[in-house]
Amino acid sequence: MAYYADRAPICIDLKIESHRAQSPDIPAADSSVAPPRKGLRAAALVVAALLLLSAFVAVAPYLSMALKNGYTYISGLGGEATGGANGAPSNGFVTSTNCSSAVSVGTLVSPNINGTSAKVTYPPDYCALAQYALSLINSDRAANGSAPVSLDYNQAAQQHADSMLYYGYFSHYDVQGLKPYMRYSLLGGLGADSENVAYLAYSAPHYTSTSAVEQAIQFLEHSMVYNDVACCNNGHRYNILDPLHNFVSIGVAYNSTHVFFDEEFENVYISLSFSTTGASNSSPYQVTMSGTPIAGTPKPNSIYIGFDSTPSPENRSQLDNAPHEYGPGTLVGGVLPPTGFFGGCGQFATGTTVCAESWSFTQNSMNIVFSLEPFIKGYGQGVYTVYLITGSSTDSALTTISVFVP
């Protein structure tokens, strides 16, 4: 779809997952618009592209009405804990972190994630650019009735911006085959990550100053909020304005011709500790989630489990030509609080139901313990993502924590 700016035509390629509900054993339905036409008009060609993660939108009707034995959902909005990078806390709330102490400026290198770390570098003017992006986001949120978000420093945002610039591709997936919530988890995130990515490119050197990069960020932010309906049913806009979000991590990577912009929206409501025990399919993966919620945090009612096959590497051509959008994985069932003296629980209409061994949530504390073993026995090695839910869909997730099972 073409939008025209003052200086040159701007072609915007937007691809987004569809918002249709689906059952837990059917992969996310995807839809995309046609790729942009390439051409050259005036002195410079400007190409912009936007993507949105809508992985947490009404994904499982079986979960909204599926419980038997009289169990009902408690509706509401939810949030979660988040991990930080460098100067930001990894298991608690980010209150005030000096930007310059939270980021590391360096020469762009391969930012692939190895284990739970990556060689993430930030441009010298990152702090100014991140604050500028935050001001635009909060201006848009205020204009549309949403509370402001605060700046977080989870490395997933910058790592992915670095990756797209370094390898020259554009996608929510990366060269390691990782999805956003996987990168977020590997780099310390303990919350429900929701990603927007975009880029703007000139055919000749253009981004030679901080102000020029700020203009690119301004254009991309405005496009996602106010020019998003034709291609993406306002999906980018929804993500930016979602009242559930209260933090955002910003990624900006650029050279003289390209700017890659990443927004990782987060919901930080619980200072969370997440641990697993067990090391193989024959040894149960025991999950323990504990922490302290802030006042007013909605009470979670269930956990959904999403499954993805083990990620495999992808090259630039595969990333650019394959569908970019992604969902929450195949929803294979979930976990419910125990009910009654003997510790049973309700049942999901489809998928595997696991009764939590422990489930307590108060205004001052949370402690949930359950086993991933039944899911692993059914699906084997891969990535299992834990969605702690307060409503009836992954839209209300308090966490999107990925557990990698070899």
Structural description of this entry:
Helix 3 runs parallel beside helix 6. The protein is an alpha+beta fold and 406 residues long. It has 10 helices and 19 strands. A hairpin with an 8-residue loop joins strand 11 and strand 12. The strands form 4 sheets. Strands 1, 2, 3, 4, 7, 8, 9 and 10 form an 8-stranded mixed beta sheet that branches. It is 21% helix and 28% strand.
Give the SSE layout.
Blueprint: E1 2-4, E2 9-17, E3 30-32, E4 46-52, H1 61-65, H2 99-102, E5 113-114, E6 117-118, H3 126-143, E7 150-152, H4 156-167, H5 180-186, E8 194-202, H6 210-226, H7 229-232, H8 235-241, E9 247-254, E10 258-266, E11 270-277, E12 286-293, E13 302-308, H9 316-321, E14 330-336, E15 352-355, E16 358-361, E17 366-371, H10 373-379, E18 382-389, E19 401-405
